[in-house]
Amino acid sequence: MLVHPRFDPVAISLGPVSIHWYGLMYLAAFALFMGLGRVHARRRPDLGWEGRHIDDLLFYGMLGVIVGGRLGEVLFFQPAYYFANPLEIVKIWKGGMSFHGGFLGVLAAMWLYGRTHARHFWEITDFIAPLVPIGLALGRIGNFINGELWGRPAPAELPWAMIFPWVDELPRHPSQLYQAAGEGLLLFVILWLFAARPRATGAVSAAFLAGYGLLRFVAEFFRTPDPGIFGTLSLGLSTAQWLCVPMIVIGAVMLARTRAR
């Protein structure tokens, strides 16, 4: 059995300025987006993307992730807390970013990019889909360092069961690392290989929707559910799981339609 090492969430302190690990994870995610985007553009020159386009995509995407992710956390998961403490909303370096909110924010940002650069929406999302999971993995590692989003109680004989002392003395699943491995690394490998060959428009986006939705749905069985605006709903599923259901359904339908084309 393991005990969480209780990392200091502050990576670097320079006088009054503190740089948090969580923020560094986001910076690393954005840097990898640029690097992987250029590699993807070179291996698929038929898609017509260049470095300057990827830089623009990153700018739009950053706005979507940060604004959407924070608003999603506020509105979907902890509205009572943030409405009682409105100044906490801007303190994103403390953690608390909703994937589903960030996902909607990125979709809105990509739609806006397409409108201003005359690019088809699915053409954009097909290109960025394989670049996203590595960033998700880094975000979950940031959650682990912060000691947040801990797992459900686990059997004591599980070799990697972990105690989070500030929660209780129960062995728990290190669900942050499960999600980093599943929604992050595994999904990245799947999408990176899937996007290496020409696909029907929307197919890579559909694979991301279905893949992320399914992997997150499964991971939630090992993670202590966030309170959510609905709490634990029918069938004992969490708010996050119910938010994943339309992703799985829409992704599966889109994949079936692209295969038919």
Automatic annotation (TrEMBL):
Enzyme Commission no: 2.5.1.145
**Where does this polypeptide localize?**
Cell membrane
Pfam families per UniProt: LGT
Gene Ontology BP annotations: lipoprotein biosynthetic process
Gene Ontology molecular-function annotations: phosphatidylglycerol-prolipoprotein diacylglyceryl transferase activity
Please give the GO cellular component terms listed in this UniProt entry.
Answer: plasma membrane
Q: Which InterPro entries match?
A: Lgt
Q: Report keywords, A-Z.
A: Cell membrane, Lipoprotein, Membrane, Transferase, Transmembrane, Transmembrane helix
| Entry binding sites for a 1,2-diacyl-sn-glycero-3-phospho-(1'-sn-glycerol) | R140
List residues traversing the bilayer: 19-36, 57-77, 97-114, 126-145, 177-195, 202-219, 239-256
How is this protein positioned relative to the membrane? Multi-pass membrane protein
Primary enzyme class: transferase
Q: Which pathway?
A: Protein modification; lipoprotein biosynthesis (diacylglyceryl transfer)
Similarity-based family: Belongs to the Lgt family.
Function statement: Catalyzes the transfer of the diacylglyceryl group from phosphatidylglycerol to the sulfhydryl group of the N-terminal cysteine of a prolipoprotein, the first step in the formation of mature lipoproteins.
The record's annotation in PANTHER family points to: PHOSPHATIDYLGLYCEROL--PROLIPOPROTEIN DIACYLGLYCERYL TRANSFERASE (PTHR30589:SF0), PROLIPOPROTEIN DIACYLGLYCERYL TRANSFERASE (PTHR30589)
What name does this protein carry? Phosphatidylglycerol--prolipoprotein diacylglyceryl transferase
Lineage of the native species? Bacteria, Pseudomonadati, Pseudomonadota, Betaproteobacteria, Rhodocyclales
